[in-house]
Amino acid sequence: MVSDIEIMNRGIRCLLEKLGVVETERFISVINREKFDYTKWQRERFDGMSSDEFNSAAVIYSEENPFCTKG
Length: 71
What we know:
Number of strands: 0
Low-confidence stretches: none
């Protein structure tokens, strides 16, 4: 099992790779400031979708946004 520290390190590396330093800092700031509830956000975003629509959207997203390297 991956440790919390390793998950955090991988997440930060991915954010830095995709957003750069300034936008990564902004992202973290918004998450902290807004008391972001990821589960609620996901439900609001995806509850109206059928499983087929969700799967299609996920496939398209993964093709357009390859996963960051583990590096």
